[in-house]
Amino acid sequence: MQPQEIDRHYHNQALNALHKGFAGYEKLHHEGDAEVEPAEILRVFQFAGDILRSDQESERIRMVADTVFTTCIRLTRCVLFPNEGRTVVLNGTPYLMDASL
Fold first, then answer.
1. 3-state SS, residue 25
2. 84 three-state secondary structure
3. How many Cα atoms occupy the beta-carbon half-sphere of 62 within 13 Å?
4. What tens digit of pLDDT does each residue of 38-79 get?
5. Can you say how many angstroms the Cα of residue 77 is from the centroid of all Cα atoms in its chain?
6. Nearest partner of 86 among 73, 70, 101, judged by Cα
7. Which ranges constitute the DSSP H helices of the chain?
8. Distances (CA, A) of 99 to 24, 54, 85
9. pTM of the full predicted structure?
10. Share of the chain above pLDDT 90, in %
């Protein structure tokens, strides 16, 4: 698989895990990562999703909610998957994400 395909695969896997409330998924710990609770990620993801689904007129609020929504997906990738799943491709360049502070 190409890096973009792997990125898309793990993006979809993380999104699926969030929609399932992490049911059937186990948290992995990677050296150097901050302690992140999946329940907190899920709470923030759902809140951002509620804003995106609402008739929010403020473009600024919608942009912030979209950023938070995407960040939750990326953080989920860091929490649930090995390094391959933690790699995001931006402008054709792969970057390894972590959950450090």
1. coil
2. helix
3. 8
4. 899 999 999 999 999 997 789 999 999 999 999 999 999 999
5. 5
6. 73
7. 3-19, 38-53, 59-80
8. 21, 29, 13
9. 0.88
10. 65
Question: Model confidence over 85-99: pLDDT tens digits?
Answer: 999 999 989 998 887
- Residue matched to tokens 């360049």: 93
Amino acid sitting at position 41: I
Q: How many residues does the chain have?
A: 101
For the chain, give the longest Cα–Cα distance.
Answer: 42
Residue 28 and residue 2: Cα distance in Å, rounded?
Answer: 24
Contacts of 86 (CB under 8 A, 6+ apart): 10, 30, 77, 78, 96, 97, 98
Sequence ranges of the domains in the chain = 3-96
